[in-house]
Amino acid sequence: MKHAHARRFDLPFVWPDPPLRVVLVHPQIPPNTGNIARLCAATGSQLHLVEPLGFTITNAQLKRAGLDYWDSIAPRLHRDFEAFLAAEQPGRLFLFSTAGSRSYLQARYQPGDALVFGSETEGLPQALLDRFPDRVHGIPIRTQHVRSLNLSSAAALVVYEALRQLQPP
Question: Is the N or the C terminus of the chain less surrounded, counting Cβ atoms within 10 Å?
Fold first, then answer.
């Protein structure tokens, strides 16, 4: 539910035009998709969901997942990654994976970039990683302690780093 907070202050910010695109390939866990939908609503980013999904998009599931921001983001559903590419024709792709050998902090983002994340359980399909090896980035983590970050945490880090870079000097 969207709540008005008396403490909320609209900070000055320049939002990219065209907006960033957050692409979830085969997301499995509705609450993660819900958190990312809220992130997209907060940042004006477009949300793209690439099937198959680990859940169905129904009003009951949207409410359970906390997706009350759905109406403000107009998510786009794609039957597979090829359909996403054909429909959206993104100029630039950045794929995020624990297999990435370059940090997401090294990427130089531009308005309209597609930020592509894999499922919580499998990550991005190996075929995508093999197809775009020069576009795979990772997020530094202490691998002796964890395998990966939560999908919604990873998406938030990357989206806000991209937005930070896109601010005028």
Answer: C
